[in-house]
Amino acid sequence: MRSMKLLIAEDNPLWLKVIQTNVRSWGFIPVTTENGEEALQHLASNDSPRIAVLDWQMPKVDGIEVCRRVKADSSRPYTYVMLLSCRDTKQDVVTGLDAGADEYMTKPADLDLLKRRLTAARRIIEAIPPEGWSRPRVEGYEVKQVLGQGAFATVWEAVQVATQRPVALKVLRVDLATEKVFNRFANEIKVMQEFDHPYLAKIYDSHIDSKLGYYAMDLVNGGTLYQYVRQHQLAPLAVIRLIAHVCLGLQHAHEHGIIHRDVKMSNIMVTESGQPKLVDFGLGKSMFLAPSEDLSGTVDGCVVGTPLFMSPEQARGEIASLDQRTDIYSVGIILYMLLLKQHPHHIAAEDRQQTISEIAHGPVQRPTKIKSTFSKTLERILLKSLHPSVDFRYQTAADLANDLLAFVKSRTQQESSSKTL
C-alpha cells in the first residue's frame, strides 16, 4: 500500500505529537501545522494532502472555516476532511458536518477508531483520482462552481443555456459508481420527476447512461436549514412555521407514494426568502411497490439513513415496512433539536452503533424536563411526532403541519417577536 500525505492541523503540541506519531505508523506521511492559515496553504499547494485532520479552535483561521474553504474550492481535487475537536455537543457535530466535514470525532480520540476511519478515508481517496473532480462538460449547461461533493457525485452551480435558468446540477461519477449507486441515482431522478410542489426541489432536466449521469434542479442560494436558522437568528415561531412548510412538502411526496427515509437538516435547503426545499431523494422508496420491485437499493434488516435523524423502526432495520410515519419522526427530531438545542434521545455523538441502538429502543426526553417554561401544547405536538409506535404518531405530515401552524397562529399576537416558548 503506497503512503499517502495526511495534513494534521492542531495547536495543542501534545495532541499534534500523538496524532503525528500514530498516523506515521499507520502508513501515512504526516504534514503538520499549528494554525488554520498554514493549513490552507498546505491544502492549496501542488501535491497537497488529500486527507486533512483539523482541530476546530486554532489561531488565525479555525478548523470550521478551513473546512468550508476547502469544500468550496472547485479548482482542487476532492479532499477528505475530519474535524477532531474537544467540542462535543450535538450542535457542534451538526455545525461541523454542515461546514462540509466528512467525519467528526471528539477528543480524547479512540486511536483504534481513528485508525479505522482514516483507513476508510484512504480507500475513498484512492477510488477518486484527483482529476476526477475537474469541471464536467454537460451539453446545454454552463457549469460554474462546486456546491457540494460526495464520493460518487458532485453538485455544481450551473446555468441552463437555453433558458438562462440558474440550476444546481448533480453529476454522477459513472466510472466509479457501483450498480447499487447507479440504481440509487436513477431512482432519485425517477422519484423527483413526480413532484411539483413549492417546498420540494424540482427537476428540470436529467440524463443517465453508461458515460454520463446528471440532473438539473432548483438552485437554492440560502443554505441548509441549520445555516439559515443560525444566520437569520430565527425566533421559535418562525422555526416552527418553516418546519410546517417542510411537512407540507413531505405530504406532497407521500401522496405520490414516496417516503424520503433521510430527512435531516442538511437535506432541507432554504431560499433567501425563507422558502424550504427538501432535496436528496436518493433513499426515496415507493410505498406502492413490493420489496422485490423497489429499486432504492436496500433490503429489510439493513439500517438505511442518517443515524441522528432515524425513526425507531428505521434504526431497527425494518425497511420493508417503513411508511410515511418514519419521515414524520425525522421531522420531529429536527424541530426538537432546533428548539431545544439537543437531541431528543440520550445519545453519544461519537458512537454510530450506540446512536442507532438508543433511537431504536430508548425513550424521548420530555421538553419540559429540559426547559420548564416550554409550552405544554408544543410539547404534546413534539411527543406525538416522536412516539415510538407508528400507530400513535401523527399519521400524515399534513396533520403535523396543521397542528404546528395552529400553534403558531395561537401565539402570533403575543409572542411573534419572542425568543422563548
TrEMBL record:
One Gene Ontology MF term: ATP binding
Superkingdom of the source species: Bacteria
Binding-site residues, ATP: K170
UniProtKB keywords: ATP-binding, Kinase, Nucleotide-binding, Phosphoprotein, Serine/threonine-protein kinase, Transferase
InterPro entries: CheY-like_superfamily, Kinase-like_dom_sf, Prot_kinase_dom, Protein_kinase_ATP_BS, Ser/Thr_kinase_AS, Sig_transdc_resp-reg_receiver
Residue ranges of every copy of the Protein kinase domain listed in the record: 141-405
PTM sites of type 4-aspartylphosphate: D55
UniProt domain Response regulatory: residue ranges: 5-122
SUPFAM superfamilies, sorted: CheY-like (SSF52172), Protein kinase-like (PK-like) (SSF56112)
GO biological process: phosphorelay signal transduction system
PANTHER family in alphabetical order: MITOGEN-ACTIVATED PROTEIN KINASE KINASE KINASE 20-RELATED (PTHR43289), NON-SPECIFIC SERINE_THREONINE PROTEIN KINASE (PTHR43289:SF30)
UniProt-recorded name of the protein: Serine/threonine protein kinase with PASTA sensor(S)
